[in-house]
Amino acid sequence: MESLDYDRNALLNKTNIDPARFTDPNGTLSSKEELTFYQNLFDVSNDPSIYLKAGMTLNIGAYGLWGLALLSSPTVGKAIEFGLQYIAFSYTYNNIEFFSNKHTSSLIITSSQSLGTLERPMIERDISAIYMIFTALLQNTHPLNHIRVTWNSGSDDESALYQQLFQCPVTFNCSINEVVFDQSLIAHELPQKNPLTMKLCQQHLDQQLPTIKIDDTMSAQIEQYFIRTPAFKINIHECAQELNFSTRHLNRILSNEGASFKTLLDKFKQNLAEQYLSQTNMKLEEIAERIGYSDAASFSHAFKRWTGLSPRKYRINV
Q1: Is beta strand 104-111 parallel, antiparallel or unpaired with respect to 94-100?
Q2: Residue from 126, 151, 163 nearest 38 by CA
Q3: How far apart are CA 290 and CA 306, in angstroms?
Q4: Among candidates 165, 229, 268, which has minimal Cα distance to 237?
Q5: Long-range CB contacts (< 8 A, 24+ apart) of 115-123?
Q6: Directed axis angle between helix 65-72 and helix 119-138, to 10°?
Q7: Under 8 Å CB-to-CB from 305, ≥6 apart: which residues?
Q8: Pairing assessment for the beta strands 104-111 and 177-182 based on DSSP bridges
Q9: Of 16, 33, 180, 175, whose CA–CA distance to 107 is shortest?
Q10: Under a CB-based contact definition with an 8 Å cutoff, are residues 175 and 281 in contact?
Q11: Sign of the C-alpha dihedral computed for residues 271, 28, 87 and 120 taken in this order
Q12: Got the DSSP string for 171-219?
């Protein structure tokens, strides 16, 4: 931002960030400090697209070991799986889900917390960051098929900027924020694949994870499995296999934690459904498909069981 002539003191105002931390390789920032900086930049720049542009500066090397692991993955699909599993090492403040069907795959972005005026900027930064990651993985400047966002285009200049940056169709005023790419890319082998490097990166990230992830219960590990797995594929047998347990042993551990796979899955689906109902204009049929139900009626029945309200009444009340 200084290279764009923004004043450092204005950007660090009320963040309590000592500039000396920027030269400390072990220095960290709290979420509050970071978000205060982001709000300062948004206010000082007076540029509604500043985070769309800022995300384009996040080359894959900026992510350290997380980025190197993605580059070293055998396929795009494995890179996505790894990226979502270790999403805590990225810069996102949002929930990012992978979804796939016969023809297209996509990453869907929803706000995970109340960010106020930063909600859209943080989503825009993630869209740009995803584009940059795909560009690095595929060594291709046109990796995406389509981008959909929930807000209206403020002007022709804004629409043109999107087209210029991402080189693909961009549709505004949609029901979800979604980055769409060709389904065939999932099996695409990456030119930089290196199983040993990927394994070493994973080991280092596993060592660092406890310092940023407080909850390391089995329930939390299963929730991470839910996040990185398409809803229609979620099942306890595959989950147990990923975690190197038998299904019986997994159930026993969950029982000791006062939980069950079904209750965790129901809670996960409920949270997703509530996000979609409150933050998007998606139709019930779309939401049902996204969270693994065959039709809107089945989804509505489950949602009423979870909340006591029909999806339509919930949407009206929020």
Answers
A1: antiparallel
A2: 126
A3: 17
A4: 229
A5: 115/35, 117/39, 117/42, 118/35, 118/38, 118/39, 118/42, 118/93, 120/151, 121/38, 121/42, 121/50, 121/51, 122/38, 122/51, 122/92, 122/93, 122/94, 123/94, 123/149, 123/177
A6: 40
A7: none
A8: antiparallel
A9: 180
A10: yes
A11: positive
A12: E-S-SSEEEEEEGGGGGPBPTT--HHHHHHHHHHHHHHHHHH----SHH
Write the CA distances from 199 to 22, 75, 191, integer angstroms: 29, 14, 17
Q: For the full predicted model, state whether its pTM sits above 0.85.
A: no
CA distance linking residue 124 with residue 52, whole number of Å: 5
Q: Which amino acid is at 307?
A: T
Sorted by where each starts, the structural domains of the chain and their CATH numbers stand as 47-187 (no CATH), 217-318 (1.10.10.60)
Residues 6+ apart with CB under 8 A from 140: 134
- Sheet of 170-171, strands arranged across: 94-100, 104-111, 177-182, 146-148, 170-171
Q: Which of 95, 15, 121, 1 is nearest to 57 (CA)?
A: 1
Strand partners, 100: 105
Distance of CA 120 to CAs 27, 113, 126, 283, Å? 28, 12, 10, 21
Distance CA 311, CA 293 (A): 14
How would you write the pLDDT of the chain (318 residues) with one tens digit per residue? 888 888 999 999 988 888 888 888 777 777 888 889 999 999 999 888 999 999 998 889 889 999 999 999 999 999 999 999 898 889 898 989 998 877 889 999 998 767 888 999 999 999 999 999 999 999 988 999 999 999 988 778 888 899 889 999 999 999 899 999 999 999 999 999 999 999 999 988 887 765 554 445 788 788 878 877 878 889 999 999 888 888 998 898 898 888 899 999 999 899 889 888 987 888 999 899 888 898 999 999 999 999 999 999 999 887
Tokens 């990456």 belong to residue = 190
